[in-house]
Each structure stands twice: as structure tokens, then as C-alpha cells.
Design goal:
With about 350 residues, the protein is of the alpha/beta class. It has two domains: about 170 residues, Rossmann fold (3-Layer(aba) Sandwich); about 160 residues, Glycogen Phosphorylase B (Rossmann fold, 3-Layer(aba) Sandwich), CATH 3.40.50. The protein has 15 helices and 13 strands. The strands form four sheets. A six-stranded parallel beta sheet has the order 10-9-8-11-12-13, with helices on both faces. It has a three-stranded parallel beta sheet with strand order 5-6-7. Strands 1-4 form a two-stranded parallel sheet. Helix 8 links the parallel strand 8 and strand 9. It is globular. The two termini are about 15 Å apart. The mean pLDDT is about 90.
Amino acid sequence: MSAGEASGDQHGAAVARAIRARRPRVRLLGIGGGEMEAAGVTRIAGLDELSVMGGWEVVRRLPFLLRLQRRIERLFAEEEIGVFLPIDYPGLNLRLARAARGQGRPVLYFIAPQVWAWREGRARKLERCCDRVLTVLPFEADLLRKYGVRVDFVGHPLLDAGLAPEREGGPPSSDGKRLVGLFPGSRAQEVRHMLPVFAEAARRLARRYPDLQFRVARPGHLPEALYAEAGFPTAGAREVAAGATAALTKSGTITLELALAGVPMVVGYRTTRLEWAVGRRLVRVPSIVLVNLVAGAPIVPELLQARLTPASAVSALEPLLDEGSPARRAMLAGFEDMRERLGAPGCATRVAAHAIELLE
């Protein structure tokens, strides 16, 4: 199993538990984090070693990534690997999938690379190097089938995480204050780019609304020191989402988590000028927000690159803080429609069934 990010570690752990429930003696090796390890996966490398973002970060870590790739390739050649199960993270996992297929190992790719957003040529790589691809977004399967990929939609793993809204506006804290969550990302470089803007927006909101408090979501593999300058307490993403009235967040899977938890949000994203200039020419979708793409409508506002400022973030968040506002109610209604489109619970069990079928 190979996961390169915190969300992949969570989903990989669920799949590992589902496999072990049906085949307790199966040996699981993997690239991942603490959740996969707790689920019985013997780790080969950890998330802290793979937390890279953007061209320069990749170049800087290239020697390590190449050594890791060669180490995994030796495993495919020398060990009794019955199935290779890459989880998202296509930069490394597509290369490992090709190596596994070259050694005659079955490849089950879980959470397909987002070829619908950019680099559609990766679909051809999936067809060549994967026995089966499992998608978690409803519109992906039809696109991949056009390239001859053997594909199955298994529903989204977040539906199994118990992310249901418990009450309107989120539970208040013990002192009666409402919580606003800040979700600047799971990679160090993302946090450096976005947390200063998110934190300044939070300070401005705090001056206008004394009943608000703020908390920053921090993944376990990133150090607390990275967040010190922001001046707000940190906690795990699930803990922050569970109590939040609203959120300011980066794009990515976290937007689905917040939507499923019933947390209205504003999405902001910022990177280097060079990477933004390259990315905007490659991305072919009308929105970078997964909630909007799944729903097929602009439910969540997005502030990208130069448009992400403390002032714009405050302006977009303010209407969502009022429980009776039309903007908040419309967004929550859109979240319900999106939830229905994500399929049925039981994703990890279905992935495990595919893995065991290939194993046998």
C-alpha cells in the first residue's frame, strides 16, 4: 500500500482494517502515516518524508524519492507481493504502479489521479499499468472508461467517517463562543503560503465579532512551530470541523469533509507566482473546489492567488456566520445534494473486496 498524504493515510487505514477483517493473516507493507501503522501496516516510509508540494520542493527531495522508488521496486522483484494498492499521490504512485506491473504484480489503484482536472494523458498510464482503478468521485469512471481503463466507482470514503452535521451552527464552546476553523493544508509549503492570510482574516473577524474564537487544523506530521506565528491554538482537522460554525480552508479533500460535516466554508488558495502561472494554463475545470465539482454548481466561494487577501476572506465569510442568512442556508442545502451524489457508505469494504479478489 502506498499513500503520500494525510487523507490517503486515513483512507488506507480503513482499507487495511477491512482487509484484515476478511484475511487476518495477510501481510501489509506500506508507505503511509500513523493511522495505517495502527491498522497493521508495516511502514517503509512516513508522510513526513513525502510532504512535498510544487516544482522546487520536488526537485529538492528528488534524491530521496528516487531512493525510495528503487527500494519499492526491489520489493516487487524480491518479495511475495500479491497486490500493489497505491492510494492517490500520482507523482510517485504511477511510477511504482508501472514497476509493479513490470514485475507481474497486480495493481489496484484506489482514488484515481484527477485526470479530469489536468494531465488527462495520465489516463493512458492508468490503462497500461493498472489491473483495476477505483474512483471515489461519481463523474470520474465514465471519463476513464473512454481510455480503456478498467474502473469501478466505490463511493467516497468520507461517507464512512461519521461526518454528519449534529446541529445548526456547530456546538458552542463552554464559554458560549462560536468556533471558526482555519484549514491551511497538510503540507508545510501550503501552510507557509496560506496561514498568514488566514490568520490575519481571523484577527479582523475577532475584532468585529467578540463571540468568535479560532482554531487552526494541524496534521500530526507537521510541527507545532510552523503554526506559532499565527497565534491561534491548533487541533486535528476532524476535531476542528466537529465544532466549527464556519471555516476558511484550502482546496482539496478537506472541502468534502467540511461539507459532509455541515460546515459552511470559503476556499482560498495561494502558491508561488511561477507555479500559479503554470497551473492556470493546465487546469481545465471551472472550479478547484471538489464540493462545487461534485454538485455541478458554484456552492462554495473560492479566492485564488491574488484574490486571496484578508479583506476578501472576511467579506466572504461574514454572511456565513449568521445562522439565518440566505447565503448560509443555500450552501447547506447544496451540501445535502452533494452528499447524495457521493454514493453509499462502505467504500473501504468494497476496496478490500477488490484487493482480495486480485490477491486470490
